[in-house]
Amino acid sequence: MYKLEVKLKQHTPLIHFQHDQEGATLRASEVKPKLDRFILNQLGMNKLIYDKSLKIAVKKNPTITSISNYEAGQICLNKLKWLKGESASLDYKLKISPMSNYQRYLLAAFLSKKKKEILDREQKKYISPCPCFGDEEIFGLLSNDCISLTFSSFESELLDCIKENIISFFVYNNFGFRQSKGFGCFSVIKINDEDIEETKKITILKNSHKYVYSKSITNDLKKIFNTINSDYQLLKSGRNFDKYQKSKLFEYMKDEHHLRWEKRKIKLFLKNNHSDVFNDLKYEIVNYNCNRIEGGDEQENERFVFARALLGLAEHIEFTTFENRGYNKDKVKIKMSEVSGLIDRFKSPLTFKVYDNNIYIIVDEIDEEMFNANFSFTLSYEKNQNRFEEYLFGLNTPTFNQFDLIEFLDSKLTLLGWKKIL
After folding, report:
1. Would you call 354 exposed, middle or buried from its count of C-beta atoms within 10 A (0-12, 13-18, 19+)?
2. How many whole angstroms separate alpha carbon 228 and alpha carbon 230?
3. Do strands 147-153 and 194-195 pair parallel, antiparallel, or not at all (unpaired)?
4. Which end of the chain, N or C, is more open, meaning fewer C-beta atoms within 10 Å of its C-beta?
5. Which residue spans within 209-314 are E strands per DSSP?
6. 260-261 and 304-305 beta bridge pairing
7. DSSP 3-state assignment of 271?
8. pLDDT > 80? residue 121
């Protein structure tokens, strides 16, 4: 049995469902499948055939040698899936050491001044505001000591392949919940007895994707996640607290493509067809910070698209209501479901990485299936102990020609102090 030892440095809290239990750490059940897919993709991209690591014997016969290495590699991958099932699991075992000397953080989008004072008095750590959902409170763990990964296999070539790719793997990926927003960020600091220079991960990061953006900030977790939360929120949905600011996505779709987005469509539809619900929302408050909706026939000449889906598909959109008007919950939810059923989940194409006093955004391509996809919108709320749910309308996401992610980021991220790494 051959072994490979890898040590990790943790940069941001890992949101863990077992945060209150001893032995919590990175889950091998998350790391191994991700690493397997990463290695298989790398082998395909690099046009390599890794016979032993894939547990497939590729015979040197005219059929194989007459086609390209890439095509032969695809044959291997297809056969691997056939032999191993959909998971395409590689033949090694992974053991991860428990976190030690760690700190536990309460994470929330909003904490009242009173709640913060209590946490400070009890000397409990928290990060707020940060990119969490609504009023949920979750917990993240941050280890001050390194975390050890032990790989073992009877295939030495497979461990060589892991060794070759493990630094890049942790540069590309975060772990745990809310990982696209910078939580669960790790980097490799040692492989067996070899120390890995900190600058190497930055070099890999800069070369990993065609488009990467960066922003320098004080190395303080509260300021880091406040920035991620604020900038991403302003980029995608706009900002209602402090001072009202329109979404940069809304501005881009309107100014560059003369399209209106789903939020305006929802509010107009509610005002014209469900005035009882709309009147319970906070859009009728004179001094409330929001984009006012006048209603009427103004929507007839406007073209609408489900724009926000292209920056990450959420389960629902929430609207704040007046208090004490019979609502069991202070939210009216608009649920979205993709009509064809082909799209189950789509994560944001933007992944935040945090290394010391810099935040990076790695940009992935948007899956082509997300363009011009039709979604149904359903109104869901509870009032006077009764639940109401009703179909509203269908709406398509922008077409490929109606949304250019890089054009959008180049024009809007720079306004927020981000720089493109060339």
Report:
1. buried
2. 6
3. unpaired
4. C
5. 212-216, 260-261, 304-305
6. parallel
7. helix
8. yes
Three-state SS at 223 = helix
Q: How does 171-180 read in b/e, with b if 16+ C-beta sit within 10 Å?
A: bbbbbbbbbb
Residues 6+ apart with CB under 8 A from 175: 14, 26, 27, 30, 31, 184, 186
Pinpoint the alpha helices (H) of 130-178. 156-172
Residue of 368, 365, 369 lying closest to 409 (CA atoms): 365
Global pTM value: 0.83
Q: Please, is 141 exposed, middle or buried when counting C-beta atoms within 10 Å of its C-beta (0-12, 13-18, 19+)?
A: buried
- Which amino acid is residue 226, in one-letter code? N
The answer to whether 402 touches 255, Cβ cutoff 8 Å, is no
Distance CA 270, CA 257 (A): 25
| Cross-strand partners of 75 | none
**CA torsion through residues 224, 421, 38, 350, sign:** positive
Under 8 Å between Cβ of 174 and 185: yes
Q: Is 358 exposed, middle or buried (0-12, 13-18, 19+ CB in 10 A)?
A: middle
Question: If you search the block for the tokens 């016979």, which residue do you land on?
Answer: 51
Cα-Cα-Cα-Cα torsion 275, 279, 280, 284, nearest 10 degrees, comes to 150
Identity at 162, one-letter amino acid code: I
Kindly list the domain boundaries of the chain, sorted by start residue.
2-208, 224-421
Query: How do residues 163-191 score in pLDDT, each as one tens digit?
Result: 999 999 999 999 998 899 999 999 999 99
Buried residues in 244-261 as b, exposed as e (16+ CB within 10 A): eeebbbbbbbbeebebbb
203-255 pLDDT per residue, tens: 888 887 889 999 998 878 999 999 999 999 899 988 766 677 889 999 999 99
- Using the structure block, give the residue that is written with the tokens 């194409």: 349
